[in-house]
Amino acid sequence: xxxxxxxxxxxxxxxxxxxxxxxxxxxxxxxxxxxxxxxxxxxxxxxxxxxxxxxxxxxxxxxxxxxxxxxxxxxxxxxxxxxxxxxxxxxxxxxxxxxxxxxxxxxxxxxxxxxxxxxxxxxxxxxxxxxxxxxxxxxxxxxxxxxxxxxxxxxxxxxxxxxxxxxxxxxxxxxxxxxxxxxxxxxxxxxxxxxxxxxxxxxxxxxxxxxxxxxxxxxxxxxxxxxxxxxxxxxxxxxxxxxxxxxxxxxxxxxxxxxxxxxxxxxxxxxxxxxxxxxxxxxxxxxxxxxxxxxxxxxxxxxxxxxxxxxxxxxxxxxxxxxxxxxxxxxxxxx
Length: 335
Hints:
The protein is mainly α. It has 16 helices and two strands.
């Protein structure tokens, strides 16, 4: 689009650079009226709706992988945090801390508590058992529940095989921790359960390799999950919608945005982080803290070290994203 030109401003004082798209709303010294902004918003909504209808058949119908919807069982969570084995006096949290990175503790504990939630949803027996007896009962009488649970995560839960492997790790550590204070009779049953989980890991890995072969670039394009011309095509889509985005930002200065408009605006901002920044990493976005957000407001950029090549490439958020985050931080509320 000819009106969407990139304009860069050099700051001689501290060397910071601001980058913005010059669109119809911000062009020249003219300050548009509310009626002019609203007209552009309505025109763009009509255009985008028409394009959505025309391209409906091109949108992928594949079901996206989701997140685990199981809640964490609070009683079992308390058990993991407070129960100490007589053999080493350690809680499950301490057991993990000695073997894994600190960032793994909370996710692994949540995985174990979700497994207990699954057990209680399948049988009243587990609802009546104490937390200390739940895993022993599974290991002793129903070891097949591990298989059922992992299948639920893959099919019903819609998790990726790699994510399911992480949950196998969590369950294996849980069983090893409980096994520390067991006698010989039940010890071998816990050991057998660990071996079963190792076999399940091999099964999940085979599924993962099969999916990896199917998810070649050509197949992803064929399934309409990737665009034909890659990141360039995605960036063109972002630029095509810039006029609507720019108009919504201006409209938010006049009135509260509707839920639908706010959601679209936020989606555009998040998509921009992937499509318009070559060095963007998912983790740097997911781990953004309030301190990082304040840096975005004050310095117009934020450097993250939460990605593999951080020692070489520091991720800089563009001014386009800053304008959105700053606008909503000072009072843009949807209804």
